[in-house]
Design a protein that fits this description.
about 240 residues, MetalloPept_cat_dom_sf, aminopeptidase activity, about 50% helix, alpha/beta, Cyclin A, domain 1, 4-stranded mixed β-sheet, 10 helices, single chain
Length: about 240
């Protein structure tokens, strides 16, 4: 019954076009949108409208969340929903936006972070870091990173062991992702330069989030240097970003 009312509400939202000022914000702040073919652009626009309407948006440390912030964040997040059917990050309850890097005192140690995803459905983001994601070719995108964590947690745990439809793909992921993670750890420990962000060596959950960033931001280099990992992510996300890169 709940899904009936949810879908009816969504049809009502999707019947109204994204306002022109917000469309221009999307084109400017998420410029890779302009490279997409029409059907994918329409999917992005659907995701943006639903994410803006359904999620609870909160500004932190005195920040007022604006239409630009909502449109930009939703626009980046929508890329990992391009082939996700009718899932629109339903498990995300609140998106919290900070005016700068977040600083926390953890047992007397100051910790700095630009984003987090919580298992209770919260996603927090630093607005300046979100704006840096406009460069869709540098391998870094805090929005994709944190929302990838959310997808990872749909099985109940953010541990990097994401779920595939076919058991063969699941087995391949467990094997190949495990090997790729260990190789990244070795490369980082040895001080070697890596295509994947070294932060992915922290643990398997960060590895999946970092690999997702690279998949969407630098797909061609990833396809060349990590072909098996790229192929599995293409299966998982049901999309090939080399089509627009």
């Amino acid at each position: 019954m709940w899904s009936f009312f949810r879908n009816r509400r969504r049809r009502r939202w999707l019947a109204v076009a994204l306002p022109e000022p917000q469309l221009q914000i999307l084109k400017q702040n998420v410029p890779v949108f302009n490279r997409l073919q029409a059907d994918l652009q329409n999917r992005i626009l659907d995701c943006v409208r639903i994410l803006i309407a359904e999620r609870n948006w909160e500004g932190c440390d005195g920040l007022e969340v604006t239409a630009e912030m909502k449109t930009t964040i939703a626009g980046h997040a929508a890329f990992i929903l391009l082939r996700s059917g009718d899932y629109y990050f339903d498990g995300v309850t609140t998106i919290l936006v900070y005016p700068d890097v977040m600083v926390r005192n953890h047992d007397g140690v100051l910790e700095h972070t630009v984003g987090e995803a919580w298992d209770n459905g919260g996603v927090i983001l630093s607005w300046p870091e979100v704006l840096l994601a406009a460069d869709h070719d540098d391998g870094r995108n805090v929005v994709i990173h944190e929302f990838a964590h959310h997808l990872d947690g749909l099985d109940g745990e953010m541990g990097g062991s994401v779920s595939f439809d076919k058991s063969a793909d699941q087995t391949a992921w467990n094997d190949i992702a495990g090997k790729e993670f260990q190789q990244l750890v070795h490369d980082v420990d040895a001080g070697r330069r890596t295509l994947l962000d070294p932060y992915g060596a922290a643990n398997e959950a960060e590895f999946f989030a970092v690999a997702s960033e690279c998949f969407f931001e630098r797909p061609r280099p990833m396809q060349g240097r990590h072909p098996e990992l790229f192929k599995l992510l293409k299966t998982y996300y049901r999309i090939d970003p080399t089509d627009w890169h």
